[in-house]
Design brief:
- The protein has helices at residues 22-49, 56-73, 76-83, 92-125, 130-133, 136-162, 179-182, 191-225, 229-258, 264-289, 291-309; strands at residues 9-12, 89-91, 171-172.
- With 310 residues, it is an all-alpha fold.
- It has a single domain, classed as Rhopdopsin 7-helix transmembrane proteins (Up-down Bundle), CATH 1.20.1070.10.
- The chain has a three-stranded mixed beta sheet with strand order 2-1-3.
- It is a multi-pass membrane protein.
- This is Olfactory receptor 148-like.
- Keywords: Cell membrane, G-protein coupled receptor, Membrane, Olfaction, Receptor, Sensory transduction, Transducer, Transmembrane, Transmembrane helix.
């Protein structure tokens, strides 16, 4: 990545139209962030500690929990830092790193959603061959592909954004460094970088969304063919949590990157839903709507409580 900039740092202006609410926001976001970390940590512990959950479906769910702990950690600690009255400055390299990991983890999570949809498709449409198709080598290969796509996507977007010179204003009208907020500060024409950013994000999101739709179209047909109401209910409950999580993830992405004219307040509000609220909701969705995870979580809680009492 070439460094043409004369700037050493950027100033994050935070969430637009929230001046005077820093203390309230600090309390709210601190609670959400802590709940997100603990919720996903307990889901991960529940999966690791229960031998009945050592199957591909829960292997992917465990990885999703890890991503849901890492993804908000890219932006939330810095936001909490300046909401507490500390400096709003972020170094040039820190801004680039934040943008890279935001898109790296976000793109990887999007790919993982598609992998999980395919896993559900195999489990429901080909149950007798499920363990043969989703054998360990295949699962690891799918996960590695998801991480590779995320890394490639983030590298392209970060390179195009930070190859531009930044020599003038350094006030980022957002609560973290992202492409729509950083590019207007460039001292050169940013049209190509904007086009690459919107095209890459849109293409990847659309491709992953279509892959999910194809998987769930086949799943829907398979569910309709199940004769027993109990079988249909079990198949539906397996997929409903995942579908809910996907809608929470893709909705904000579409609004943020495909809006013709960026709106700072709308972008910040939607990004908060995507960065902070959605990872918290995932832990609630999968713990409340999945009987196996819920049962394992109860055992983890009991063990924690009894250990603390002893």
């Amino acid at each position: 990545m070439r460094n043409h900039t004369e700037l050493n740092e950027f100033i994050l202006l935070g969430i637009p139209q929230t001046q005077g609410l820093e203390t309230v926001l600090l309390g709210i976001f601190s609670f959400i962030y802590l709940f997100t970390l603990l919720g996903n940590l307990f889901i991960l512990l529940a999966i690791v500690s229960s031998s009945t959950l050592h199957i591909p479906m829960y292997f992917f769910l465990g990885l999703l929990s890890i991503l849901d702990m890492l993804f908000p950690s890219v932006t939330c600690p810095k936001m909490l830092f300046y909401l507490s009255g500390q400096s709003q400055a972020i170094s040039y390299k820190g801004c680039a790193v934040q943008l890279f990991f935001y898109h790296f983890l976000g793109s990887t999570e999007g790919c993982l959603y598609s992998v999980m949809a395919y896993d559900h498709f195999v489990a429901i449409c080909h149950p007798l061959r499920y363990m043969l198709i989703m054998r360990p080598g295949v699962c690891v290969g799918l996960v590695m592909a998801a991480w590779l796509v995320g890394c490639l996507q983030a590298t392209i977007l970060t390179s195009f954004t930070f190859q531009l010179p930044y020599c003038g204003p350094n006030r980022v009208d957002h609560f973290f460094c992202d492409i729509p907020a950083v590019l207007p500060l460039a001292c050169a024409d940013s049209f190509l970088a904007q086009r690459v950013g919107s095209t890459n994000v849109g293409f990847l999101a659309l491709t992953l969304w279509l892959s999910v739709c194809v998987s769930y179209a086949h799943i829907g047909i398979a569910i309709l063919r199940i004769r027993s109401a109990e079988g249909r209910q079990k198949a539906f409950s397996t997929c409903s949590a995942h579908l809910t999580a996907i809608l929470c993830a893709y909705g904000p992405v579409i609004i943020i990157y495909l809006q013709p004219t960026p709106n700072p307040f709308l972008s910040a509000t939607v990004q908060i839903l995507n960065n902070i609220v959605s990872p918290m909701l995932n832990s609630l969705i999968y713990s409340l709507r999945n009987k196996e995870v819920k049962s394992s979580l109860k055992r983890v809680f009991y063990n924690v409580v009894f250990t603390a009492l002893d």
